[in-house]
Amino acid sequence: MNVNHxxxxxxxxxxxxxxxxxxxxxxxxxxxxxxxxxxxxxxxFNQNERKFTMRMSNIGRPVCQLWFDKNDPESGxxxxxxxxxxMMIGDIVEAVFxxxxxxxxxxxxxxxxxxxxxxxxxxxxxxxxxxxRRVDDIKSASPWSYKNKFKDYQTLKEHDSFGxxxxxxxxxxxxxxxxxxxxxxxxxxxEFKYVSxxxxxxxxxxxxxxxxxxxxxxxxNNFKRCFEPIEETFRKKPTGNKVLSEECGWCKYRYKxxxxxxxxxxxxxQAKEPPIVAYVEIADEYKEKQxxxxxx
Length: 296
Fold this sequence. Notes:
Low-confidence stretches: none
Helix content: 40-55%
Number of strands: 10
Mean pLDDT: 93
CATH class of the largest domain: Alpha Beta
CATH architecture of the largest domain: Alpha-Beta Complex
Number of helices: 11
Distance between the termini: 49 Å
Strand content: 15-25%
Structural class: alpha+beta
Number of domains: 2
């Protein structure tokens, strides 16, 4: 068992005791979990349209995406029918995990609204929990994200399409505590781990400057792409095609931002079932194969 936080040991011991019927869960904790899930259902299934504002939950995202959220939200790709269920899974995981922490004897505080002040801008949010004078977030993750994205702080920072680093830094500054990390639960099998973000402390000033710069750019309100397409390679050799960066690949405005975008089976692959690739530019030598792919 790899341990990155002392509280992990308490949680493991508690869960082991529960499976052996040595411990249970109090009615008070169960009632709290029930209340939190009820609030989550109300939030997810009774959403009211609201005007765009910078919030703790979005300040870590690329400013080009925030620009669309503010100015042209209707141009985004519609969320799939399972989107709400996926969001509810995250809310349920958070509620139950907090209950587990409580029963394991881990002391924490949670649910306090806070306001981040950067320059003349104020950004509101509600954090997940404060533990040992550090603010933590609880995240549910797919098996791939659990293994590859939430590997460690540096890996998460380099592939932070959803802005988790900026969000946690904002909470830490607003609450006057140190940045903590992420309690991550694998949605497929329930395994969990703590990913420490303590190294973020030395980068806080830069992260907060970036947040302030985003607020300034949104106030000026001129659109500018944050990322450029990258050269596609196949077997370590360039194909001449250009594809979306990983950050753009997760954005729901990618078709609006890149009108030439085509998501096609890999034109370079010879596999029976090639992976889907987001092409922005296709080299002449692949255009014939492109035509066959789009007509299939």
